[in-house]
Specification:
single chain, 0% strand, flat
Length: 173
């Protein structure tokens, strides 16, 4: 028998590099797809979330400076100590205490939720008044420009599935 030295058969360097890049690209593609699924909820979920953000196009249609003033005014109104209109902020500790109480008292938690919905109503009312005040201060030209930006905002929301467009009612029937 002759002793033939065995050559170790290994993967060549260029093949390792190609394999590494192929694996990296595959991982990037999978990561991008997972990211899209997480960031872009289904059409059904977008409709659910759009109902709570119906006022968003009205705010986004404001000029940049007006949006910033609106945001700061809302923050001041909500956080203003001693204000009669200042809503109580969410008391998460109270919610946890009510949920962990044994026995659970449904009526107490229902009262807590009712209070939170009332706070939301107050905050929305503040925003409504601030928006109305700004629109009332606009000149006719500013208001027309605002209406044009608002129409584009609403069209954009419908285009991307944020709002289900309703069928126009026929007035000629």
């Amino acid at each position: 028998m002759t002793d033939i030295p065995e050559k170790s058969v290994g993967i060549r360097l260029w093949m390792r590099v190609v394999f590494f890049f192929s694996l990296a690209i595959n991982l990037l593609v999978v990561g991008a797809l997972v990211g899209l699924m997480i960031v872009n909820p289904s059409r059904h979920e977008r409709r659910l979330h759009s109902t709570r953000n119906l006022v968003q196009p009205f705010i986004r249609a404001l000029e940049t400076d007006d949006r910033e003033i609106f945001r700061k005014s809302m923050a001041r109104a909500v956080r203003q100590p001693g204000s009669e209109r200042r809503p109580r902020l969410v008391d998460r500790q109270a919610a946890v205490a009510l949920l962990t109480a044994d026995p659970f008292v449904r009526l107490d938690f229902a009262d807590y939720l009712t209070g939170q919905f009332e706070n939301i109503r107050i905050i929305q009312g503040l925003g409504r008044e601030l928006l109305l005040d700004r629109i009332d201060e606009m000149s006719g030209e500013e208001r027309l420009a605002y209406a044009d930006r608002l129409a584009r905002q609403m069209q954009r929301r419908e285009q991307f599935g944020h709002v289900t467009p309703s069928k126009p009612e026929r007035l000629d029937n």
